[in-house]
Amino acid sequence: MVDLDVGPPAGPFVETVTIPRPSLGSRERSDASVPLPTKGPVMATDERRTKLQVLTTEDCYRRLATQRIGRLGVNAEHYPLIFPVNYALDREAIVIRMAPGTKLTAANHANVTFEVDEIDQWHRTGWSVLVRGLAEEVTGRDRAELIERTEAGGAEPWAPGDHGHWMRLIPHGITGRRIVPGELPPAFGPDAYL
Fold first, then answer.
1. CATH of the domain at 122
2. Which residues span the domain enclosing 146?
3. Cβ pair 63, 129 in contact under 8 A
4. What pTM, to 2 d.p., does this model score?
5. Is 8 inside any structural domain?
6. Are residues 9 and 103 in the same domain?
7. DSSP string covering the chain, please?
8. How far apart are the C-alpha atoms of 16 and 42, rounded to whole Å?
């Protein structure tokens, strides 16, 4: 049995249960203890009054500025491919340092997508920002200024290797959504959960 730390400790409304995992080839079957809600105020999404909020363009950029990892979507090798990337903002442009390869080849002078999110699985909240735009490798006289501004903003690749190519994504459109948490009903009274 595998003991996983997958969230907050079990409380009065959470019970730890064992979930069997299917066997993989010749490996033996393993089980995992995962806390799941099994009693107490289990409410449907509409009961929690959760709302989906559309973010303004300004709020989308504010949220982009809080993160350093995003996902770049390109069309390559006859498929849409998604790559996790480090990035920084340079005014409204998204700047990504890249190594030579599929990402760089597929993105250069192409329409791409870029997505960033922050998810809280336990509270069932979060946000997501999607940018659609044109990606281009930065060369020539703009390169030195862009590198200086971007390095000051903390665009450092995590992956090892040569990341000497600088890609700028010029947004054509940006949208965002946020799941706003709902409120529990009162603890005591006619609609109480206690």
1. 2.30.110.10
2. 51-180
3. yes
4. 0.66
5. yes
6. no
7. -EE---SSPP-TTEEEEEEEPPP-TTSPP-EEEEEEE-SS----HHHHT-EEEEPPHHHHHHHHTT-SEEEEEEEETTEEEEEEEE-EEETTEEEEEE-SSHHHHHHTTEEEEEEEEEEETTTTEEEEEEEEEEEEE--THHHHHHHHHHHHTT----SSS---EEEEEEEEEEEEEEEE---PPPSSSTT---
8. 15
pLDDT in tens, the chain (194 residues): 444 444 444 444 444 444 444 444 444 444 444 454 444 444 454 445 778 899 999 999 999 999 989 999 999 989 999 999 989 888 899 988 887 888 888 898 899 999 999 998 888 889 999 999 999 988 877 766 666 666 666 666 666 666 677 889 999 999 999 998 876 556 666 665 44
CA distance 100 to 51: 42
Residue 71 forms part of a structural domain: yes
Whole-angstrom Cα distance, residue 114 to residue 181? 25
